[in-house]
Structures are given as C-alpha cells and as structure tokens.
Design a protein that fits this description.
Oligomer: single chain
Largest sheet: none
Helix content: over 70%
Strand content: under 5%
Shape: globular
Radius of gyration: 21 Å
Number of helices: 18
C-alpha cells in the first residue's frame, strides 16, 4: 500500500486532476447513471473545502495580525487597487464587446422566486451588516466579510499578548493549513465526480440556443484572463507576466471552474500563496477579501446580460450611460457575494438604469440560470484565479521580481 501511494505521489497533482477529468468525462458519456452516483465524490470534496475555509481564514488572519509589527507594510493598498481596477476594466471591456457584437435574448421565465436587490444602497448596506455579524454565525454561514472583520479585531487585541499565546495561534493556523493540504490531495477524485455529474445531468442541449451570448461572456472572460490581467501585472512588475498568469490559471482556475465556488477555492489559493512564498500578512487577508470584492467575471456577466436586454428592447446606449453602467457593475459586483444568488441577481439593478422593468429583468436572470453551467464556472475561475494573481503581483512589486513560478 505504501509503495502504491508513493508511486501516486510521484505524479503531480495537476496531472492527477487531468486523469480524473478524463475518467469523469468518459463515465458521463458512456455510463451516465453511474456518473450521477459519482457526484458524491464531488459533493464531499466541495463540502470539505467550504467547511474548512472559514476556519482557515479566521485563524490565518488572527495569526498574521497578532504578529504584525508596527510600521510594517503589507502592500494591501496595491492589492485593493488592482482588485477594483481589474473589475472596472472587465466591465468596460464588456460594454465594448456588447457594442461590437450586439445580441438579443429569447426571454424565459424561471427566476420568479429570486429576490434581487433594489439598489446599490441595499447591496452596500448588506455588506456593512455582514461586517458586524455574530462571529460564530459568520463562521457557520461562511460570511467572509464578517470573518475578516472579527479576525482583524481579535488579531489586533492579541498583538500585545505573550509569545506563548502567539505561538498557540500560530500552531492552530499551521494545523488547519495541514488539514487543507490533506483535503486538496483528494482533488482528482472530487473533480472527477463533479465533471461526471455535470455532464451527465446537464449535457449541452440547453446551451445551444444561447451560443452567441455564451461566446460573448466566455470570450470576454478569457480576454481579461489572458490580456488585461497580464497587462496590469506587467505595469506593476515590469517583467514577462505570463509565467505567473499561467501558474495561477493552472493551479487556481481549474479548481474554481469545477467547484463553482470562490469560497471553496480560498484554501486552494492560500495554499498556492504559501508555495509562491508570498507575505502571509498580505495573502491571509487579501485572498478572502478578494473572494468578496474582486469580481471581474461578475462585472462582465452583469454588463453583457444587461446590454443584451437593452438591445432586445431596442434601447440605445450612449457613452456616458455606458460609463455609468461600468461603474454600477463594478460596485455591484464587489457586493455580489453579499447577495443571495450572486452576480445574476444584480442584473435587475443594472437594468433599472435603462428603465427596464423588473419583470423583464428577472427573465434575463432566468436566461442566466440556463447558461450558468458554463457562465458561472468560467466566472468563478476568473474571479478566484485573479485573487491570487493580483496578490502575488502586489507582493512581488513590493519585494522585487521573483522567478520561481514554475
């Protein structure tokens, strides 16, 4: 048994995941009934990641803040700037793409039970309320804004504690990190179950009618990942950005695509940040914060879906209104995680800018649910991989260029 495990460990985790993907696809195509049974592996894997992520973030942030020395710079300002700039540029790109390739929708029902926020103010109020959520409830509900807020307070309170107390917190953080590493080792089995169940259940038939819309959404997200993000990285580090970009896509985006959960991908990103030798004071805060406010993929979804609705109704969009839409999409996307339903439920908010009724806007949300199997997966992959990419960029820009990316 030990010899078998050693032989498996000699194969890289990414190669194991690729094998799991192939097995999952073959199983879904030729043994669909068995593929649905394999979904249990995916459920367990995602559940384990989601379960450990809040605890991991809580103890990592407390540990990092409690050891933080006065006057020590973490580079968080640069990370937040990159997060907001990247999200805005994603929304602006989506506007240009929608103008260049206008699309119309065959509106459907299917989102009648969903409740969208009534305005930006509601989104921001929700975020503020999440900050002061009961800390136990924040951990139980994976409210990362609340978790970050309380962890920062507890960490600050422990800065003047004894070294023994700080060492205990560090040991707890290391123990939780070790558990995360154990869970990630099961990624090939988990992703095999996720892809098998997804293909067997959804197929591709439901997506054919929205092919043009999907191309716009996925193409825009790919352009951000391969052009806009690398350009921002280059402006900060003044070196070839693609080795770092490709590593983040390979080791973060793949997980996020199949788990379809930024929260579940937080442990993956934190593990990658550790292997990239980034500053723990920075990444222990920036990664969970990015899962909340770094939403370039969500901004693209909100903007393209809204402009598709406007085009369907023959509403003309001028340049000032397009800029305002980009700003609203940026602010709304930053608050998407604080709204049940994520980015899709912020579409009515953006549609209200053009006087589109809530009834029609919710039908657009229904279209989003149909294509969500690909749209949401790609959106999450872009959002989550950009968290670690921008964190690494800010850290390397502060400390100097680092070549050990492969």
């Amino acid at each position: 048994m030990n010899r078998f495990m050693k032989s498996i460990n000699r194969v890289s985790l990414i190669q194991q995941i690729i094998v799991g993907l192939i097995i999952g696809i073959i199983t879904a195509l030729y043994f669909p009934s068995f593929a649905k049974e394999l979904s249990l592996l995916g459920v367990l894997f995602v559940g384990a990641l989601k379960g450990i992520a809040p605890v991991l973030v809580f103890f990592l942030v407390i540990n990092a803040v409690s050891k933080h020395r006065s006057g020590q710079k973490t580079g968080m300002a640069s990370v937040i700037t990159l997060y907001l700039l990247g999200t805005f540029l994603s929304a602006a790109l989506a506007v240009l793409v929608s103008w260049a390739f206008p699309t119309t929708l065959h509106l459907v029902t299917g989102a009648a039970d969903a409740k969208a926020p009534e305005g930006i103010a509601e989104v921001m109020i929700t975020l503020l309320k999440n900050v002061v959520d009961n800390p136990v409830h924040a951990l139980m509900s994976a409210n990362y804004i609340g978790i970050l807020g309380w962890a920062l307070l507890f960490g600050g309170a422990l800065r003047k504690s004894s070294m023994t107390t700080k060492e205990i917190m560090e040991s707890l953080a290391k123990a939780v990190t070790t558990v995360v590493a154990w869970i990630i080792r099961f990624a090939p089995l988990g992703i095999m179950g996720l892809v098998a169940e997804s293909i067997a259940t959804n197929g591709i038939e439901a997506l054919v009618g929205y092919f043009h819309l999907l191309i716009l959404l996925l193409g825009s997200m790919l352009f951000v990942a391969l052009v806009i993000n690398p350009l921002l990285v280059f402006l900060y580090i003044r070196r070839n950005p693609y080795p770092l970009v490709c590593k983040c896509l390979r080791e973060s985006a793949i997980y996020a695509f199949f788990t379809r959960s930024s929260a579940a991908n937080i442990p993956v990103n934190l593990d990658l940040a550790k292997r990239l030798k980034l500053n723990p004071d920075m990444y222990s805060v920036s990664i969970p914060l990015g899962a909340t406010i770094n939403m370039g993929g969500a901004a693209i979804t909100i903007t393209i879906m809204t402009l598709a609705a406007a085009n369907t109704l023959n509403i003309t969009i001028d340049v000032p209104t397009a800029i305002l839409l980009s700003i609203i999409a940026t602010i709304g996307a930053c608050g998407a995680s604080g709204v049940a339903g994520g980015s899709l439920l912020l579409i009515p908010l953006a549609c209200s800018l053009f006087g589109i009724s809530n009834d029609i806007a919710m039908q657009v949300v229904g279209v989003g649910f149909i294509i969500g199997v690909l749209q949401d997966s790609t959106e999450t992959a872009l959002n989550s991989s950009t968290d670690i990419l921008f964190t690494a960029t800010a850290d390397y820009a502060k400390r100097g260029y680092h070549e050990d990316w492969n």
